[in-house]
Design goal:
The complex is a heterodimer. By secondary structure, chain A is an alpha/beta fold. Helix content of chain A is 25%, strand content 31%. Chain A folds into 2 domains: 3-184, Rossmann fold (3-Layer(aba) Sandwich), CATH 3.40.50.620; 206-320, TPP-binding domain (Rossmann fold), CATH 3.40.50. Chain A is built from 8 helices and 17 strands. By secondary structure, chain B is an alpha/beta fold. Chain B is built from 6 helices and 13 strands. Chain B is globular and about 65 Å long. The chains are: A alpha/beta, B alpha/beta. Bound molecules: flavin-adenine dinucleotide (2 copies).
């Protein structure tokens, strides 16, 4: 193993670890002898089992956040554990809302830099080299930290495939945080869930996304119908999310979801670099666009040049007629 | 209500970007422009100041070569003044270095709220804003899709994986806004003319008392290499026709998705 100890911020939704968390734990296990995790919530002790399955030997329980946003308390708990215990060689955060906030707070507290938008890590002796996809995934830039620990990495979803290890015993220790004063002022008053049906966008084997080229909001129904015929999930470019056609949770790309389905169909999407970083890893890509110069055609396996409002209904009909 | 908006001035995003072969830093030659992502923050700030019935919007930016063209765009939208930090020492700054500089610059003015975008268009680490909040000892709410001031406190709808959370925070605070939070106004002719005479203070690293603490020399990361990513194999691209639909159905069958 190249590193001694790696910490991972483990995020949970409905008492289950997020897929990104499992990806980070799997990566951490390949680089370090010892993997430890931090988690917040009411019943963190109950998380020890599943984290043990993913090689976590020690779980720091930050406890209930009592409505606070996680960033300040996660950073404080980690900083405290570093000063009272021993610093890890590296800390992994997911590129999630709370992961990014926590990494940023910790970086400023410790006055150490962060490496973000990581899509792959490669061990080089006791260092980790981080790969970023830049210019829409056209180039890969590799960077590393100049000085020693802790190296803070913020890692994009789907960069590693999650894989459980032999179940191991995971010890739970308290990492509760004392009053943080002003930095901890932001409180969640209520949570709202935007319902969506069908498979989850970032887990579906097929994703059909629509963009501004659909022309008008009601044509998004074509995207939804095609997605459902293919047992897939509907997605979107930012242009139509910003325009209010579909909720933000549909967005694919740099600031939205990263998807790597078996099949990605882009309908009326130009293929801006910020969209491509979220879908370029798809196994097969189909594009429908009326402009044959659209950048999306450079990455697609199969493309049709034409009007989406005509092609998609014909395609739906042809699939139904089979 | 006084609001500081961090505005990044970036290379024109419609021009294909490149990296300096020696330093691997982004080439920042040529005129810089206001990052589109920051026009949402400027608009939000103008609306909040309006709703509060008084106060002003200050733009804060760190950029090379005393660049002010992006700041002028924000002033033309209606901001009152600008603070620019420009210093050769800052070349190659990482996000934390940038945050230290912006936090120190923000401290030179009075503010109730700091607004930034969730991430910039060119570097997009997305960590600078919350680093600034931590350095200034402020609470922060990232990914705001709606921002209001209610009874002197910040009220935000914050995006989540599942939908959104309603979050409140006392002021002063920092908030990062998403694109689409408001519709940015276009500068009017009058706005553009008056922007030319609005004050922009230019500060150096020494003015901020940060000599030797920031810039490329104090950034923790090093570029190891840059290489071309594996290109995808060119695919089949055909014009729309009945036959085209047939071929696409065949392709989908071959993938076993139908
Ligand atoms: C910091 C930052 C982050 C961003 N993050 C994201 C992100 O996460 N995800 C994302 O998607 N974008 C993101 N963007 C925005 C991105 O740059 C593009 O603006 C966006 O992806 C464009 O969406 P679009 O392809 O739907 O629209 P457009 O670029 O307007 O493309 C529309 C396409 O439709 C085609 N078209 C028009 N009419 C028809 C028709 N009748 N039939 C078929 N085709 C037609 C056109 O030829 C064109 O190619 C981000 C931008 C920034 C600056
Ligand atoms: C391809 C690439 C990858 C990089 N990777 C890393 C990395 O992994 N780690 C790292 O530390 N640095 C990295 N950098 C450097 C980093 O982009 C710069 O340090 C930059 O000055 C600050 O970060 P940002 O643009 O990522 O800001 P973000 O954190 O994405 O910016 C969010 C918001 O903060 C405000 N803001 C940011 N910078 C300024 C500014 N100069 N003036 C005014 N407001 C501002 C704006 O409102 C902006 O929208 C990278 C740069 C490039 C080009």
């Amino acid at each position: 193993m190249s590193l001694g100890k790696i910490w991972v911020l483990a995020e949970f939704a409905d008492a289950k670890p997020t897929t990104a968390t499992l990806e980070l734990l799997t990566a951490a296990n390949t680089f370090a002898d010892k993997v430890e995790a931090f988690a917040w919530g009411e019943g963190v002790v109950n998380y020890a089992g599943v984290l043990g399955d993913y090689g976590v030997s020690k779980l720091y329980d930050i406890g209930s956040l009592a409505g606070s946003l996680p960033g300040p308390k996660v950073a404080a708990a980690m900083a405290e554990a570093i000063s009272s215990d021993s610093a890890p060689d590296a800390i992994f955060f997911a590129t999630s809302y709370d992961g990014r906030d926590s990494a940023a707070r910790l970086s400023a507290r410790l006055s150490v830099g962060v490496i973000t938008n990581v899509v792959n890590l490669v061990a080089n002796g006791s260092e980790l080299n981080a790969e970023h996809a830049i210019f829409g995934g056209e180039m890969i830039l590799t960077s590393k930290f100049a000085a020693a620990a802790p190296q803070i990495f913020v890692i994009r979803a789907k960069s590693f495939a999650p894989e459980a290890k032999e179940a191991a015993n995971c010890e739970v220790v308290s990492a509760s945080v004392s009053d943080l004063g002003s930095t901890d002022g932001a409180k969640i008053v209520s949570s709202h869930v935007e319902e969506r049906s069908g498979p989850k966008l970032d887990e579906a084997p097929v994703v059909v996304s629509g963009g501004r080229g659909l022309g008008q909001p009601d044509r998004y129904q074509l995207v939804e119908e095609l997605a459902s015929l293919l047992n897939g999930a509907p997605g979107a470019s930012r242009a139509i999310v910003d325009a209010g056609w579909v909720p933000y949770s549909y967005q694919v790309g740099q600031t939205g979801k990263t998807v790597k389905p078996n099949l990605y169909i882009a309908v009326g999407i130009s293929g801006a670099t910020q969209h491509m970083v979220g879908m370029k890893g798809s196994k097969n890509i189909v594009a429908i666009n009326k402009d044959k110069e659209a950048p999306i055609f450079q990455v697609c396996d199969f493309g049709i040049v034409g009007d989406a409002s005509k092609i998609v209904p014909k395609l739906i009909e042809a699939i139904k007629a089979r | 209500m006084n609001i500081c908006v961090c505005v990044k001035q970036i290379p024109d995003p419609t021009v294909t970007p490149s990296l300096d072969p020696n330093t691997s830093n982004l080439v920042r030659a040529g005129k810089l422009v206001l990052d589109d992502s920051d026009t949402f923050g400027v608009e939000m700030a103008l609306q909040l100041v309006d709703a509060a019935g008084g106060g002003e919007v200050t733009l804060v930016s760190m950029a090379p070569n005393s660049e002010v063209s992006g700041i002028r765009t924000g002033l033309a939208m209606g901001a009152a003044k600008g603070i620019l930090v420009s210093d050769p020492e800052l070349a190659g700054s990482d996000a934390l270095s940038t945050a230290k500089v912006l936090a120190a610059a923000i401290k030179t003015t009075e503010f109730d709220l700091v607004i930034t975008a969730t991430e910039s268009t060119d570097g997009y680490t997305g960590t600078t804003p919350v680093q600034i909040a931590e350095l200034l000892g402020l609470p922060s709410v990232s990914f705001a899709k709606k921002v209001e001031i209610v009874d002197g406190a910040l009220k935000v709808e914050r995006q989540t994986e599942a939908g959104f959370d309603e979050v409140t925070s006392p002021l002063p605070a920092l908030v990062t806004v998403t694109a689409g939070v408001v519709e940015p106004r276009y500068p009017s002719f009058k706005g553009i003319m008056s922007a030319k005479s609005k004050p922009v203070t230019t500060l150096t690293v020494a003015d901020l008392g940060l000599s030797g603490q920031v810039g490329g020399a104090n950034s923790g990361q090093q570029v190891v290499s840059v290489r071309k990513a594996e290109a995808r194999q060119a695919g089949t691209i055909i014009e729309d026709s009945d036959d085209a639909i047939g071929q696409l159905v065949g392709y989908l069958e071959q993938l076993k998705v139908i």
